[in-house]
Amino acid sequence: MKHIVAVQAAVTRDGHDGGPTAAELDAIECEMPLIEAEVELLDVRISLLDRTPTEVDHQRIRRARRKVLAARRTLSNQGRTASSAVA
Q1: What is the pLDDT of residue 28?
Q2: CA dihedral 29, 34, 37, 38 (to 10 degrees)
Q3: Rounded to whole angstroms, how far apart are CA atoms 9 and 15?
């Protein structure tokens, strides 16, 4: 039985292990308050998919939106930009 082997080294292999670099981890850490606020807003929206929102639910949505906006404002004031669109 003959084995088929590549004649050349793999073209796409660059020696990088595929994990995030230290700079990327630092950027994620800086954006973590925004990420958490967006997840909270998403949780509120998901919880309201199958029912009619009450006044308390509307307050939860407004509170979550304000939290996202505050986190984006903080990032902007630090010189970093938020990459996702306003929810």
Answers
A1: 93
A2: -110
A3: 12
- 0.70 cut: is pTM over it? no
- pLDDT exceeds 50 at position 84: no
Longest Cα separation, the chain: 73
Return the closest-CA partner of residue 65 out of 48, 42, 84, 49: 42
CA angle centred on 69, ends 48 and 54, rounded to 5°: 25
pLDDT band at 85 (very low <50, low <70, confident <90, very high): very low
Instruction: Return left, alpha or beta for 27; rule: phi > 0 is left, psi -120 to 50 is alpha, else beta.
Output: alpha
